[in-house]
């Protein structure tokens, strides 16, 4: 059995879209337009899927006063 590594909670843009009740395209637009949009911390799936720290996403949503729909 391999060693256990504690990884912080991560989110994809699809997770963010669902969390905020918007489309993934809206999240992509915000990323392009807002200089305070979180930076990805890792890319997976052959470098085609960026993942973001949940902590950074929560800071962004608070600063932008986004409503969590969950």
In brief:
This protein has 70 residues and is α+β, with helices and mostly antiparallel strands. It is built from 3 helices and 3 strands.
Q: What does this entry look like structurally?
A:
This protein has helices at about 15-20, 25-35, 55-65; strands spanning about 10, 40-45, 50-55. By secondary structure, it is of the alpha+beta class. The longest helix has 10 residues, at about 25-35. Helix content is about 40%, strand content about 15%. About 10% of the residues are buried. A hairpin with a 4-residue loop joins strand 2 (about 40-45) and strand 3. It has a 3-stranded antiparallel β-sheet. The model has no long low-confidence stretch (mean pLDDT about 95). It has one domain (about 10-65).
